[in-house]
From TrEMBL:
Its EC number is 1.1.1.262. The lineage of its organism: Bacteria, Bacillati, Actinomycetota, Coriobacteriia, Coriobacteriales. Belongs to the PdxA family. PdxA2 subfamily. Keywords: Metal-binding, NAD, Oxidoreductase. GO terms for molecular function: 4-hydroxythreonine-4-phosphate dehydrogenase activity; metal ion binding; NAD binding. It comes from the Bacteria. It is an enzyme of class 1 (oxidoreductase). NCBIfam families: pdxA. This is 4-hydroxythreonine-4-phosphate dehydrogenase PdxA. PANTHER family: 4-HYDROXYTHREONINE-4-PHOSPHATE DEHYDROGENASE, D-THREONATE 4-PHOSPHATE DEHYDROGENASE. Pfam families: PdxA. The keyword Nucleotide-binding does not apply.
């Protein structure tokens, strides 16, 4: 009988960071193997090292060179071994390095290849360090702002967007990694309409039958009818009207200082944001919980999803944790959430087939 559990490829992230540790922590939960077949892509030596950091020496790390070799059994972590780190014992943790940046990039590239070939059903990424990666790529004349751009390039995707989610709190961005001045210039009707469509479809993929999409304004009070800027009148409202004509339940432009409270209250299924921080700040305010008394992070939750791709990609919504590496204290909740989001999207796509 065929195994119905989706195969999920998980990149190890930058090996100098806490990606290997939170991966081991997440995969020590036997119930995860009831939901999916996880396959780590990276260097088995670094995952083996991480089992000691998180005090799970009983976990077996098994290197494989093909997906078919993986056993997907609780208690064993299957690693698609790329042999990226020459000497794990000598590799410097918590530091930017060409070796670490290359390892992170090669892990992502191989994961994309596996998904495009249909060997895995979804992909989940741990954090990489952009400086380290681009130091490694510079001799090749390559540069990427982050995971989103890597996925878009290697899947030949032109229309894509970043969605952040904290459970049912979802935001999707018109622009992300650019200056605020450039972000304002990118608020144009075709792009706003494109992101409305992508956000609406993502909610459909998650099983929401008739998603309600709120579109945030760019300016204070959504421009106040042109008093504080005309981008809403000139660019955003026409995009909303075009989306509505397609049957999308889109509303706005909504004042940015209130729309996220409404989203949190269940008024909408997703909010289209005009720039990076407009969407990231409220999402991380909910997902990143710092305990003042304990002086530590009580929760680091959130999922980053790239929309518009031919394959499924979700990610943790935090950095590489260079300051935490080796301590075994890093929180794996964001990775678990990313895996579960990937599974929901895989199920949605499967049901459509």
């Amino acid at each position: 009988m065929a195994d119905a559990r989706p195969i999920v490829a998980i990149t190890m992230g930058d090996p100098a960071g806490n990606g290997p540790e939170i991966t081991v922590k997440a995969l020590t939960d036997p119930s995860l193997y009831d939901r999916c077949r996880p396959l780590v892509v990276g260097d088995a030596k670094m995952i083996e090292q991480a089992t000691g950091f998180v005090q799970h020496p009983e976990v077996r790390v098994r290197a494989v060179s093909r997906v078919e070799e993986a056993r997907f059994e609780a208690g064993t972590i299957d690693v698609y071994h790329l042999d990226l780190i020459e000497d794990a014992s000598a590799f410097k943790l918590g530091e930017v390095s060409v070796e670490g940046g290359n390892a992170a990039f090669q892990s992502v590239k191989k994961t994309i290849e596996l998904a495009l070939a249909g060997e895995v059903d979804a992909t989940v990424t741990n954090a990489l360090n952009k400086e380290a990666m681009n130091l490694a790529l510079a001799p090749q004349g390559l540069h990427f702002d982050g995971h989103t751009e890597i996925y878009a390039t290697y899947t030949h995707t032109k229309k894509y967007a970043m969605m952040l989610a904290h459970h049912d709190f979802r935001v999707v961005h018109v622009s992300t990694h650019c200056s605020l001045r450039e972000a304002c210039a990118r608020v144009k009707t075709p792009r706003v309409l494109e992101v409305i469509r992508l956000g609406w479809q993502a909610c459909r993929d998650l099983g929401i039958e008739n998603p309600k999409v709120a579109v945030a304004g760019l300016n204070p009070h959504a421009g106040e009818n042109g008093l504080f800027g005309t981008e809403e009148i000139d660019e955003i409202i026409p995009a909303i009207q075009l989306a509505q004509a397609e049957g999308i339940d889109a509303v706005g432009p909504c004042p940015p200082d209130t729309v996220f409270s409404q989203l949190h209250g269940g008024w909408y299924d997703i909010v289209v944001c005009m720039y990076h921080d407009q969407g990231h700040i409220p999402t991380k305010l909910l997902g990143f919980v710092y305990d003042r008394e304990e002086k530590g992070w009580k929760a680091v939750e959130g999922v980053n999803v790239t929309l518009g791709l031919p394959i499924i990609r979700t990610s943790v919504d935090h950095g590489t944790g260079f300051d935490l590496v080796g301590k075994g204290t890093s929180n794996e909740l964001s990775l678990v959430n990313a895996i579960d989001y990937a599974l929901r999207m895989a199920a949605g796509r499967q049901s459509k087939k």
